[in-house]
Amino acid sequence: MPVTTMPMPDDNNDAWDVLAAFDTVLSADFDDYATGLIPAWQVRCALCQQAPCQCPPFGTPAYIALVDARHGRPRQS
Ligand SMILES: [Zn+2]
Hints:
Blueprint: H1 15-21, H2 30-34, H3 61-70
The structure holds zinc ion (ZN).
The site of zinc ion has 7 residues, from loops.
């Protein structure tokens, strides 16, 4: 069985490379928040892209469909 290791930032990759390895989707407002331009309450959700978050309840079919849509995955049936 192959051993899977979690990528970690090092001399060969940075934190963005690690996030990309996990197919991470960030809020479009992440940079503005991280640089102090906007407060946390104005950061749009990475999933529903609304501020405040308007996501369906965690784990529901609507929530899973939203996750799949944000990651560009075909809809599970
Ligand atoms: Zn949301």
